[in-house]
Amino acid sequence: MIVLAMDTAALGFGVVVVEDGRVLAREQGERSRSHARSLMDAVQNVLNEAGLKPVQMDGLAVTCGPGSFTGLRIGIASAKGLASALNIPVYGVSTLYALAKAAQPCNLPVQAAMDARKGQVYAAEFRPGDNGLAQTSPESAKSPEQWIREVSEESLFIGDGAALYREFIEAELGGKAHFAPEDLNRIDITVVADIAAEAIKEGKACSAADLKATYIRKSDAKLPKIPQAV
After folding, report:
1. Residues 91, 6: one domain?
2. Is pLDDT above 50 for 224?
3. Are residues 158 and 191 in the same domain?
4. Which residues contact 25 (CB under 8 A, 6 or more apart)?
5. In this structure, is residue 210 part of a structural domain?
6. Which listed residue, of 14, 106, 193, 211, carries a Cα 20 to 30 Å from 6's Cα?
7. In this structure, is residue 228 part of a structural domain?
8. Which residues partner with 112 through β-bridges?
9. Among 44-53, 178-187, 215-224, whose mean pLDDT is lowest?
10. CA triplet 78, 215, 63: central angle to 5 degrees?
């Protein structure tokens, strides 16, 4: 199975093509004013590097939030356009689940958090179990104080939200707080692709029309124009 995955949920973007778990080509970059065009250029670049054409994709993956409103809108719109044009399934991957998944194997509860700006984080808790990683708290936007009040057990913290408020977390929880390596605080686009490939195989993907973003919080951002898919 060949899957094209895209992530635009935070300040940067990532695109990867994988075949049965093997990375064929990958590109990552930082968001610019022409973020939408940069994403589609990256899609074309990874396809060219992999020696593939869009019609050879078996499925698409895209981070569906929570995250940047502008970034999510660009990613979701681009994935919808591609999935519709190619008539292939698409799977929306939770950004927080992708962060927690990258920390596996881990025996501790995982507190995944992204910087939501305005003094808040997007956060959710995940726990490893016999059937894989389970989400044990809803994705929500909250202040660091509210977030940490809800954490009572020894946990692993991951994501740029955890890194941003690390000193506060350590002051509140002391030795109960463990932190993932810095390089895991950014969404790994390969993990996104792997999550989606498994979901597509299990029949959990959706059509382009049914793909939706998880915004959680309303945005005051100006909506960007979305270029046509390749």
Report:
1. yes
2. no
3. no
4. 16, 17, 45, 46, 47, 49, 50
5. no
6. 106
7. no
8. 124, 158
9. 215-224
10. 45
Residues 38 and 152 grouped into a single domain: no
Q: How many folded domains does the chain comprise?
A: 2
Please list, in sequence order, all residues whose beta carbon lies within 8 angstroms of the beta carbon of residue 161, skipping any fewer than 6 positions away: 113, 114, 115, 116, 121, 122, 123
Over 90: is that where the pLDDT of 36 sits?
Answer: no
Positive/negative CA dihedral, 37, 210, 142, 157: negative
**Residue 153 and residue 77 share a domain:** no
CB 155 within 8 A of CB 108: yes
On whether both 167 and 195 belong to a single domain, the answer is no
Same domain, 9 and 89: yes
Whether 173 maps to a domain, the answer reads yes
Instruction: Tell me the one-letter amino acid at 141.
Output: A
What pTM value is reported for the model?
A: 0.91
Q: Are residues 150 and 101 in the same domain?
A: yes
> Tokens in use for 22?
């093997």
User: Is residue 215 a part of any domain in this protein?
Assistant: no
Distance CA 91, CA 75 (A): 12
Report the distance separating Cα 33 and Cα 25, nearest Å.
24
Q: What is the pLDDT of residue 97?
A: 98
d(CA 216, CA 195): 22
